[in-house]
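Hi everyone, sorry if this is the wrong subforum. Our group has a chain we'd like a structural model of before ordering constructs, and none of us has done structure prediction before. Sequence below.
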Amino acid sequence: MAAPALRPGAAARSLDVGVVGGGWAGLAAAVEAVARGHRVTLFEMAPRLGGRARALPDGVLDNGQHILIGAYRQTLALMRHVGVEPEQVLQRLPLALVTPDGRGLRLPPGPPLATFGWAVLRREGWSVGERLGLLGASLRWAAMRFRCPSDWSVARLCQPLSPRVRAELIDPLCVAALNTPAERASASVFLRVLKDALFGGAGAADLLLPRRPLSALLPEPAADWLRRQGATLRVGTRVQALSREDNGAWQVQGQRFDAVVLAASAAEATRLAQPLAPDWAAQAAALRYEPIVTVYLESPGTQLAQPMLQLQDSDTAPAQFLFDHGALSGMPGCFAAVVSGAAPWTARGLPATGEAVREQLLRDFPAGTWRQPPCVKRVVAERRATFACTPDLQRPPARIAPGLWAAGDYVQGPYPATLEGAVLAGVAAARALEQPLR
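Answer:
Right subforum, don't worry. Here is the predicted structure as C-alpha cells:
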C-alpha cells in the first residue's frame, strides 16, 4: 500500500518540476512534490545524494557526525514516508550532557520543561546560586515567550549567568545547535531552538543518535522511493544554467519544467540565480560560514560510559563532544570527536587538529578509560558546514522568481542550519510550487 502524503491533498494541477540539488532539502522537496502528484526530475552534481549529511565513499563513516533531536518532527515524518523506521536507525536517549568525570546535566524521561528544572537542581559541581540563577533565567526566557531583541548575541542574553554555567552548559549547547560561538551567535535563534525542545512535548529534547550511516537514514531510501514513484534522478550532473521562457516555463539542462526548486548549496544557488535575480543572489552570497571538523579515532577494547560525552574545549582542546560508535553503530573501539565552530583549528591544519584531539582525550579522561591509547583514524572537515548564525542575519527568502523557489537550511526560517531546517525548507518549497501559476 502506498505511503500517505506528507500533507493530505494533491495539487490542483500536476506540474513538471525540476529539483536542483540532492541534499536533505532537495530530497524533501522531491518527495513532497511527488506526493502531491507532480512529475519530478532531480539533478545532483555529486556522485552521491545527501549533501553535507551523507556517508563517505567507504559507506561506513560519515562526512561528519550528526545528531537529531525529538523535536525534528518533519524529518522523522519524511523518513517514515520513504519507508525508514526511525526507531530502528536512531537510538533515542534522554538529553544528557555528561562530562568524562561523570558530572553533568541529565534530563529524565517526561515533559522537558519540568525535567529540565529537576536536572538543573540536581546538577553536581554548581553552587546553589548558580543552579537557581539558571532556573531564573530560563523562567525569564519563557516569560519572554523565548523572544529577545534581534541584535542580541547568546553571550549578551546569558550575561547574568555565572561564568561556569556559561562555559559548561550554554557555550557547548550554543555551538552544537548553531555552530557559532556564543559571542557571535544569534540569541533569537538560540531561544527558538530551546523553545521547541523544552515546549515541544514529551521527547522533544531527546537525543536521536544515528545507528546507521547517514546515507541509510534518508538519502538512499528517499532515492529508492522516488524511483519507484516514477521520478527521474540525474546524479553526477551539474546544472550549468537556468533560463526562463517567455511563457513562464523554465529550462534546466535542455529540459522544460513548469517550476523549479533550487535546493543546491547557497554558493551554487547564487551562481545559478545571479543572472535571473541579482538581488536574491547578492543576499545569498553575503552569507558567511563556519566549518565543522570530525576526528575519527580508534582504541580497541575501549567503551565509554555514555554513547555521547561532552568535552570542554579550549585553545589547546578542540572538541566539544565525543561519540562512541561501539555503542551506536556496532563499531567497537571507534570514536568520533566533533569540533564545531572550527575555524581556528582548520587554520592550524587537519593533522594538527587530529593530534590535539587525541591529546585532549588522553588528558581529560580518567586514568584507565582507554584500553589502548586512542589513535587518529581519519579527520574530515566540512569547511562550509553551516552559515554563521549571527544576530540580525538577513537570510535570503525562499521565493526567487515566479516558479523558482529556493530550498536549503540557509533560507529564511526560524532554525539554524540543521537537518530539520533543510527538510522544512524543502517541504515548504514543494508546497509553494503552484502559487505563482494560479
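For your construct planning: The chain is about 35% helix and 20% strand. The chain has three domains: 16-87+212-287+393-437, 95-205, 289-387.
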